[in-house]
Amino acid sequence: MSAALKPIQVGLLGIGTVGGGTFRVLQRNEEEIARRAGRAIRLAKVAEKDLDKARAIVGASVELTADAFAVVNDPDIDIVVELIGGTSVARELVLKAIENGKQVVTANKALLATHGNEIFAAAQRKGVMVAFEGAVAGGVPIIKALREGLAANRIEWIAGIINGTSNFILSEMRAKGSAFADVLREAQQLGYAEADPTFDVQGTDAAHKLTIMAAIGFGIPMQFSACYTEGITRLAREDIRYAEELGYRIKLLGITKRVAQGFELRVHPALVPARRLIANVEGVMNAILVKGDAVGQTMYYGAGAGAEPTASAIVADLLDVTRMHTADPRHRVPHLAFQSDRLSNMPILPMDEVETAYYLRMRVEDRPGVLADITRILADLAISIDAMVQKEPGEGEQQVDIVMLTHLTREKHINAALARIEALPVVSGEVTRIRLEELGQA
Ligand code: HSE
User: Fold this and answer.
1) Average pLDDT along the chain
2) How far is the CA of 50 from the centre of ligand 1 (A)?
3) Which atom of ligand 1 approaches the CA of 206 most closely?
């Protein structure tokens, strides 16, 4: 290690759960990190509104300020770590840091998914790095894997459990039959959930992360607004149970796929065969499957949230940036893995055009001809049934649940079929529709 190099100076914006973890990891592994980086990485300045809270975490050794702009404008700071979250002030701070020629590390997936194109363009012009391993799947190094480890491949699809809170809720609902609201409260107490937990349970957080993975997997711009997003709030316990009886688990998946006409980009609950490794990812853990044409399927698993797992990703970025910040920008790995003037402009497919299989549950009159009416509608739309179960009616009940699994079909065909099935007088209420993904080698 070169003794001549002075420590790299890091300015931290926001010292909440992840910021505190970052401070601890930098301190605890100081020597190991310096051995890797070739110089010390020093947390020099922290911006935090609550100065008492910040002082309690960092002690006397670090300069504190309540003004985040005082960090991004400080000429002594080499790398700005943005951990304040949100998309308005965070955007201004990151753009200002770039304008000031600083390197940036951020774990802010919402910011990158919605303003990433602007931020990376600014960074490109200025010749600075914006590193973001902590933005997707916490401590799982999926960004590095997609951007560098799999760089030989034409990526075919990515499918992941990328929201720990939702996965925790689904796991507890399945294992203990717990109610949705109770498990959500527990996840919030454990510090997994976003500040606004609707981002977790409505799929927004997963959509942010998926948008980022699609961009670096396929070399496309960030297109969060084109991502189809459906959360777990409407999942019923009986669907989790029926799926299990049929050999499936329900998971909130983020899926992005290369198809002939463009790319699929979608977040929604999905049945996954219980024998798949990813179906057995439980609790707050995250897992991402990546299918590359040369490597086949690979899977990345680990803690997707929490103070030190996320700090693990942030500190890895600090190491990368420390090693590379003096390198010619043309010799660095491009922000989005592909050269910025070589991004693909193939479109994101509308959900209507997506092809997948489906789980359908409907409540129907228990009398002759009902099933024939339903299957005729499906046949008219060329939807083929893969499996079907009629549940026993409850004591004295005239209606039964029918559960069907379909083969692959287009979303617009299923929608058309469901509209016609729901209009049948023998069918009561809405048909429950959950997509089904085999996630096999094909
Ligand atoms: N709230 C996120 C989750 C963690 O539950 O996975 C940070 O991305």
Assistant:
1) 95
2) 23
3) 6
C-alpha 196: how far from chain center: 16
Q: Are residues 185 and 277 in the same domain?
A: yes
Round to whole Å and give the CA distance between 6 and 141.
Answer: 28
Active site residues: 209
Residue 233 DSSP class? T
What is the extent of the structural domain holding 221? 147-304
What number of H helices and E strands is found in the chain?
A: 15, 17
Query: Does the predicted model carry a pTM greater than 0.70?
Result: yes
Residues with a CB atom less than 6 Å from ligand 1: 163-165, 192-194, 200, 205, 304-305
- Nearest partner of 145 among 331, 289, 306, 329, judged by Cα: 289
Q: In terms of domains, do 197 and 280 share one? A: yes
Candidate of 140, 142, 161, 163 to mutate for ligand 1, largest count of ligand atoms within 8 Å of Cβ: 163
**Nearby residues of 144 by Cβ (< 8 Å), 6 or more positions away:** 133, 316
| CA 163 to ligand 1 center in whole angstroms | 5
Euclidean distance between CA atoms 344 and 287, whole angstroms = 26
CATH number for 71: 3.40.50.720
Q: Which residue has the higher pLDDT, 195 or 189?
A: 189
- What does 83-101 look like in DSSP terms, one character per residue? -S-SSSHHHHHHHHHHHTT
Q: What is the CATH number of the domain that holds 239?
A: 3.30.360.10
pLDDT at res. 2 = 47
CA of 303 to the centre of ligand 1 (A): 10
Tell me the C-alpha distance between 180 and 239, whole Å. 14
Q: Are residues 28 and 118 in the same domain?
A: yes
Whether 233 maps to a domain, the answer reads: yes
